[in-house]
Amino acid sequence: MRMLTACQAVAAGVVAARLSRGRTRPAPLAPGASGPPPRPVSVVIPARDEEARIEGCLRPLLVDPGVSEVIVVDDESRDGTARLAADLGAKVIQGAPLPDGWVGKQWALHQGVSAAAGPIVVLLDADTRPKPGLCAELAALLETADLVSAAPRFVCGGAAEQALHASLLAGLVYRFGPVGPATSPDRLLLNGQCTAFRKDAMLRAGAFERVRGHLTDDVALGRLLARDGWTVAFRDAGALLEVDMHDSAAGVWREWGRSIALRDVTAPGALAADLAVVWLTLALPPLRLATGRATPLDLGLLAQRTLLLAALRGSYTRPRTGLALSPLLDPPAAVRLTWSVLRPARTWRGRGYGRPAVTRGATPRRPARSGAR
Questions:
Q1: Any idea what the Cα angle at residue 150 is, between residues 199 and 224, rounded to 5°?
Q2: Where are the domains positioned within the chain?
Q3: Which CATH architecture best describes the domain 34-153+177-244?
Q4: What is the C-alpha to C-alpha distance for residues 225 and 120, in angstroms, rounded to an integer?
Q5: Residues 76 and 97 sit within 8 Å (Cβ to Cβ)
């Protein structure tokens, strides 16, 4: 018991240090703060069977004066994704067959970025809902960064969906801290639903090919380029971007849960430490409280978790009862995280994939800084 208490105290200190970084994190992106983009912006959207969701992404982009072109890469969809995108006015690229060793999204992005006409490229997922001005603000950040990513506000349809989503999100915050600069490349997070970069620099880096086998492609990409020497910025863009990722709590459990551990981009020791932090600081306190065995440290951690609810309100378009109830689902969320570590999923959208080829220690490829902005 003393050993467990000591380990919990250490984990609590680690979490407190991470949460404290929220006091100095960069200000959220605001619409109209930077004016028109300095150079043309191409938006690339990879899409596989997205007929039901892509319209909400395309319509605001197609009327945004800060966007020069919108490219949809149809990744062998089995529905009407390509037809709908073309009817709305997007440029549709029919994706080539998936080569061996590639995950579908990276292959679609490689094709879309290669075809983009603009020197600045913004990548968006089909389930995002961008607002006018998003791409202009991302382009402005590229004046001081080489790779930019943005955190959205999440759309959750019901209390159960929001509660589970908020519990998993709290676990991410406890593991990595709030949105903002990372302490090291190996602890960097990105949101692959929204990233931006300069096209020429990305193609020279060959980054999509180098992370071609990763299902957690966004974090793999960011960490790879950070190790190459790229400056990476991760900002809150809730006022300019919403995303409707799932249609139910079961969808959150199945789809976000499959990648939440970042299993294919994290070393075993770091994974073990992340699991320990989540179990000791998020899952154990409510379990002890429920059995009447809560310690003063447990009560302190429960108070900290309650305070986090206020910070998480800004992450949701409609923070409701589900957010308030999310601490009750911290133990199940810890179970899902553990399962994601022990049994990582290697399937997505009807495709199965083998283990990724990890490319560590590659010769750094730094982005050009003169004349590329």
A1: 55
A2: 34-153+177-244
A3: Alpha-Beta Complex (3.90)
A4: 17
A5: yes
Two tokens, residue 283: 């899952």
Render pLDDT for 189-226 as a digit per residue (tens, 0 to 9): 999 999 999 999 999 999 999 999 998 999 999 999 99
Token pair listed for 198: 């300069």
Per-residue pLDDT of 33-56, as tens digits, reads 998 998 999 999 999 999 999 999
How many angstroms separate the CA atoms of 276 and 8, rounded?
9
Residue carrying structure tokens 């060793």: 101
- Cα(236)–Cα(150) distance, integer angstroms: 6
Token pair listed for 250: 């079961």
Q: Which two tokens stand for residue 299?
A: 């009560």
Which pair of tokens denotes residue 7?
A: 């380990």
Helix residue ranges, H only, the chain: 2-20, 54-62, 81-88, 104-115, 134-141, 159-176, 199-205, 207-210, 217-227, 249-251, 268-278, 284-290, 296-312, 321-325, 330-342
Q: Which residues of 302-315 are buried (b: 16+ CB within 10 A; e: fewer)?
A: bebbeebbeebeeb
Buried b (16+ CB within 10 A) or exposed e, 225-257: bbbbebebbbbbbbbbbbbbbbeebebbbeebb
At 151, is the secondary structure helix, strand, or coil?
strand
Query: 136 and 34 in contact (C-beta within 8 Å)?
Result: yes
Please, are residues 175 and 279 in contact by the beta-carbon 8 Å criterion?
no
β pairing state of 41-47 and 69-74:
parallel
Of 74, 100, 286, 113, residue with least CA distance to 195: 113
